[in-house]
Write a structure and sequence with these properties.
Helix 1 packs parallel to helix 3, helix 3 packs across helix 4 (93-102) and helix 4 (93-102) runs parallel beside helix 6 (130-144). This protein has helices spanning 5-15, 36-42, 66-79, 93-102, 113-124, 130-144, 154-162; strands at residues 24-29, 83-87, 107-111, 148-151. The protein is an alpha/beta fold. Helix 4 (93-102) links the parallel strand 2 and strand 3. The protein is globular. It has one domain: Aldolase class I (TIM Barrel). The chain has a four-stranded parallel beta sheet. It is an enzyme of class 4 (lyase).
Amino acid sequence: MMDGRIGAIRDALDSEGFTDVSIVSYAAKYASSFYGPFRGALDSAPRETSRAPRDKKTYQMDPGNAREAIREAAADVDEGADMLLVKPGVPYLDIIRLLHESFYIPVAAYHVSGEYAMIKAAAQRGWIDEKQVVLETLLCLKRAGATSILTYYALEAAKWMQE
């Protein structure tokens, strides 16, 4: 998310009387290879044009830079963010923990398409127990500090957790 955008959204919402509308900040969206299946499904893989580079690294975070997550999240919290989102989830458990310990607002984890695809493919080959790996993965995201989890496994996980 662009610098200052949370503040602009908060100001616009508040000025129109929507003071109870929450804002989720995309504070820690990493330039990750784990988005591949989603981009493939939408045929939206990064392409080079005369105005844009082939990758999205100009506006997504460097996977090696944890400090940037703190700086970006702090700015968004100061501007009025009500929740922070870390994307992708599992490769960035340390970032989830870092944000959880640094700020007193909820931290969401986005378990993205590449994470889903790896589990699904390994399960289809009989290498892992899909249900157990999914539930363990979600538990790890929660243990790291995620208060909300967005996942392609939402329906199956809800069913499995009721069993």
